[in-house]
Design goal:
Two copies of one chain form a homodimer. By secondary structure, chain A is an alpha/beta fold. The first copy, chain A, has two domains: 195 residues, Rossmann fold (3-Layer(aba) Sandwich); 93 residues, 3-Layer(aba) Sandwich (Rossmann fold). Chain A has 13 helices and nine strands. A five-stranded parallel β-sheet of chain A has the order 1-9-6-7-8, with helices on both faces. Chain A has a four-stranded parallel β-sheet with strand order 4-3-2-5, sandwiched between helices. In chain A, β6, α8 and β7 form a beta-alpha-beta unit. The longest helix of chain A is centred in the last third of the chain and has 15 residues.
């Protein structure tokens, strides 16, 4: 059995986010480009926006939590964007970003609640399907996608209408899973546990991403922090890829046996922007890996 | 300045070695295929041979040192090859392999001292040049290549005759560097220090690889073990790639400033088969990185 992995961790900003950013920003008219863009992000979206903005010559302001991983903050600054910090616990990033956008006449680019952004992220699935085809593999029958706000998942669901889509979230942050089951949007609970998946810590999905996934009959799976660490180690050992916790949840669902293998399986490894010290600890601490039920069966695809 | 990295660590066996193996084995006639192949290897060549042999339905025996990294030994066995162990300090692998080949009528496939193998490895440079072209980058003006026996370096030198070729070796194992300087083959000295670059611990290069590199006017550079560890960490942080010590020596030469950046620079990251525990220690121990003179200037290419 061959499993195809789409390594979005190898993108220039280390994550798929430049797809949606590029798609949105390149559609702005001349006046929109001059006035610039504003985004709020835990990091990967920020870098995607900054990357696209620099290439298109558009000024970009990023509203970023003060506790964002240093590598993501530094990466955003290095790409030439302006960074405005806020306190994740006491301040409202939506309000700060909306105020900035209004005062400058700039366009606010949400990280997932935007049809252009969703459509852009879906190009990951289209590209993966083309690559699988050129390698002589079956076309994707099932896509396993990490889910924060649901932009990537919704984009993939729209891009490949014939494939079954399974979203994966960290335990306690499985609000999209619960929402899809309930039939309405359930936010993350106030007592949600700590998670290493900073890229998936979205307190509430959007109506747009929920509707896309709900209408497609998408279901979700939650994985534990230990299962995510096992997946990060497995990706280093067997794929020779550095994958961040939030990028590894789909692989974790496969390795844990929570998703059974099938022909034409495509797993999106959505990002690789790890905190170096935390990543070193994950690789060094080889705790029990008894739950890697599917490990021997999983193949690889570069 | 953009530097192109060719990530051979992402090959199915985690290294470029399947290129030469495939090229040699696919050229065997029907009788040769039935009698099988024998190879001796510290690991990556073994997996390359095993990978190609399985796909071509050819029996393969690999003579491997008893202290080879477990991941390489396991990988070779998992690919269906027979493994024969020897003691690196007391036994002669060439003799063991020659005896096995003779007794079975099998073809001995050297890891670098073979025109087919060299030609096959060179496809890495051809492919990289094509990829650089499709990305709108300058064609390679300089290739930086890790060197053990010199098979990859010789292949790249033949594949891209207009590019300057620089080979890189670990300090103390810089026998090709010294040989190219001397004008004749100098073996590794008996008092060579320990190195983490198991893939580059070749005691003596071959006349064939030496002649190819010497005739092309290739020069070499030696890097320290600390510079190699810095390069491994940089590859994880900035390229999100797991690169083994021997695969990272070219990057180490760039980051240390021993090779100046120039347009059209291509660096081969030749393998990613790390020992998991040793790799975790490298990532955890962030010693002084003062010598990363070129770090800010190095771009990336997936």
């Amino acid at each position: 059995m061959t499993v195809a992995f789409k390594a979005e961790s190898l993108q220039p900003v280390g994550a798929f986010k430049l797809r949606g950013a590029w798609h949105r920003l390149s559609a702005l008219d001349e006046q929109g480009r001059q006035r610039g863009v504003v985004a709020f992000s835990s990091g990967n979206h920020a870098q995607g926006i900054a990357w696209a903005a620099r290439r298109l010559g558009i000024p970009a302001v990023i509203v970023m939590p003060s506790d964002a991983p240093k590598v993501k903050r530094d990466g955003t600054l290095a790409l030439g964007a302006e960074v405005v910090s806020y306190d994740r616990r006491t301040e409202n990033r939506e309000k700060i970003a909306a105020h900035l956008a209004h005062s400058r006449g700039a366009t606010l680019v949400p990280s997932f609640d935007d049809p252009w952004v969703i459509e852009g992220q879906g190009s990951a699935a289209i590209e993966a399907a083309q690559q699988m085809s050129s390698l002589g593999l079956d076309q994707p029958t099932r896509i396993v996608v990490p889910c924060g706000g649901g932009g990537l998942a919704a984009g993939c669901a729209l891009a490949l209408p014939d494939a079954e889509v399974t979203i994966v979230e960290p335990e306690g942050w499985d609000d999209m899973c619960r929402s899809l089951e309930a039939g309405w949007i359930e936010p993350v609970r106030d007592d949600a546990p700590e998670t290493a998946c900073d890229a998936l810590m979205t307190p509430r999905v959007s109506q747009l991403t929920f509707d896309v996934l709900s209408n497609r009959g998408v279901t979700g799976i939650a994985v534990s922090e230990a299962e995510i660490r096992i997946a990060q180690r497995w990706a280093a050992d067997h794929l020779r890829l550095v994958v961040e916790p939030g990028g590894a949840v789909g692989l974790a669902a496969i390795l844990s046996g929570k998703i059974a293998l099938q022909p034409g399986m495509l797993v999106i490894l959505s990002g690789g922007n790890v905190d170096p010290d935390a990543y070193a600890r994950v690789l060094a601490d080889r705790e029990s890996e008894n739950s890697t039920q599917n490990a021997d069966a999983a193949g690889e695809l570069s």
